[in-house]
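On clarity, I found the account of how folds are encoded harder to follow than it need be. What matters is that the chain and its backbone geometry are given together, residue for residue. I therefore recommend that a typical entry be quoted early in the introduction. An entry of this sort, consisting of the sequence and the corresponding backbone structure tokens, reads as follows:
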Amino acid sequence: MSTPEGAATGAVAAAGGRPADRAAPPPRRGPADPVRSLMHRHQELCARAVDALEIAAGLEAHGVTDRTAARFRHRDVFSLAEELYARVPRADRDAAPADRPPPAPARRSRGVRAALQLLPGAVCTATVAAVASAGPAPPAVRSAVGAAGAVLLALAVRLAVRSGPLRRCHHGSGPRATGLWVCWTAGYAVYGDWLLAQLLTGGPDLPHAAPRAAVAGAVALAFAFAPAAGCAHWFAVRARRAVAESRGLEELAARVRPLLPAATLLFLAALVGLLLGADAAFGDDGRTAPAAAAALGVLLFLARLLTVHGFPEAAATGLASAAALEYLALTLVLIARLPGLHPLGAPVEALTGAAGPAAVPAVACTAAALGLLGYGLRALSGACAHSPAPFGPAEGHRP
């Protein structure tokens, strides 16, 4: 006769178990090594990185945040990058892929770089002097001298932005129309005020009208490459130091974000000094001309800073916005000459009547510069904007 205990034991044995067995543990979620999949996904990045910070910048450029790093059992992106750098073996530096850009040229001495940054100002001053000395000559000769000086100035500007802190190190060439927007805004700063004043009074009476250039503003902007390079270097060094000292993306953003307004204010202070000196040397261009030149200088500085750190699309958008507003002002004045369309030119007439023709570029460049400053406060606060070795366009992963 079987007892209740024996029946229970037999039932357990029939079920294929033992009475002393414990319940089976819950299944393990996720792989035992969660970082391995990330290693395979970013194998080339980790193999060719020179330090863990470079890997952190690459991960951040690909959308990896501190919250993502927590899924890989790390407190932040920097901790995750340190493990990837320690586990992935270094690739052979001598066997570089064919699509990798050629190595950057050797660093020039500081004296040579400083001379290149001052070259646009020297060329612009020489051009102004040459045009002034050709005053008694026929207009065709003066135009030829001015055109030759403009070509030399363009070459000097090209040399200045291709050396030192203003040199772009990221992949890609950026929008091709950027040069067009730069030429338009710079040309408007020199001749735009005269042209707008002529249009408002029914002119210009071509070909007899002689254009009047804003000489002081042009010379000050040409000499502004030197302080722009200095402020860009100051920003880059401190941003790179913030990347090295930060232990998370939020901490990095808090460290880097105040640097951009500080660098912009430093450049603006230097530019105002140059404008005051140029006004004293070459004469006053008008009431609001210094404000317009200062706004354009800040706009160009922010655009170049964004381009240097891998955001050429945003820089081109800001420059295009300023150029579009200036073009719109000229177009509205012309359209207002048609019968029944005079009210279209009323806003431009009211603005210029209150502050002069230079108020139009001052408003246009200030609005565009504020837009670039707001974008830069977010875009330049990430690690991917301060990496020594870029990882492709960062625009797609920024707000």
Q: What stands out?
A: The radius of gyration is 31 Å. Residues 11 and 59 are 57 Å apart (CA to CA). Confidence is low (pLDDT under 50) at residues 7-30, 93-108, 389-399.
